[in-house]
Amino acid sequence: KVKNSGRNSFLVFDEKMRAETTLQMSLEHNLRTAVHEQLMEVYYQPIVDAMGLVLGFEALLRWHDSVHGQVSPAQFIPIAERNGLIVPLGNWVLAQACAQAAEWRRQGNKLSKMSVNVSSAQLSHDKFVGVVLATLKETGLPPELLDLELTEGVMIENHGQTQQTLELLRKFGVRLSIDDFGTGYSSLSYLRELPVHTLKIDRAFVTDIEHSIEARTLVEGMIDMARSLNLRIVAEGVENRQQMDILIAAGCDQIQGFHISKAVPAEAAGRLMAVKEPTPERQSLAVWNIA
Ligand code: C2E
Ligand code: MG
Ligand code: MG
Ligand code: MG
């Protein structure tokens, strides 16, 4: 073998790629089993209003694999999107979340929304609207309580078809949110055209607002724009009291983030909802920080 550093770095690179490929294949294999045997769990992260009252939850998938341990959705969702597993998996999350929300309401809890993430492959699947309506019917959840979260990219992909699907869902009363707002590459003009109800400001725009005047000005501008378009606004990734106060003062309607709680199993989420009265000081939110 010829020894030179160039070739050695190729070998190292090759080893890394091999390891990465092996990991991906193993994850994909285990993911298939996990989906088919329903080994995943849906966790719920509370979304609160300006008073700190729980309005609803975002359903977030959690997967504990026997070999790989806890695997982040950021890692397995892209795999599921590539191999088509996202469709059965997404339908399963939707069914779990709707059934849970309906159950909480039957128990007498005030709950005004259950947010569920939807991938591009799900939305473009021709049975998607049918699946959503069937799920609502089976679980008895009123359509106005279901909030489907889509990213900017998904919203504007194959525009005509997507827009029709979204309009149909909206006509049936389902709510639509733009997730991770501000991180896409799209122009803002689509905001006028799409039948969306809520805008979720990505946590990248929340980070540092308590320290940086520029960061704060930017997020305030986003909130003003959304308000003038008559959209509800959720701030994601709110991690402390100062951030929450700035966002509420700027006119943000709803808050989601570790300052309130991480995503927790259904049982713990139910307990968060049981806190019915807002205490005079939002400071008391600290006691909700059970995670
Ligand atoms: P997302 O929809 O934007 O969800 C919010 C993510 O931010 C969640 O990560 C949540 O745990 C995290 N987060 C919430 N508050 C804070 C905070 O204060 N600080 C920080 N640092 N992070 C916070 P998670 O659960 O790891 O999910 C990552 C992404 O995976 C989600 O981003 C979503 O795009 C996707 N995902 C999760 N569950 C599903 C699902 O059921 N279906 C689909 N299609 N995608 C899902
Ligand atoms: Mg989301
Ligand atoms: Mg998001
Ligand atoms: Mg995100």
From TrEMBL:
It comes from the Bacteria. Coiled coil: none annotated. Residues 24-277 form the EAL domain. This is Diguanylate cyclase/phosphodiesterase (GGDEF & EAL domains) with PAS/PAC sensor(S). It comes from Granulicella sibirica.
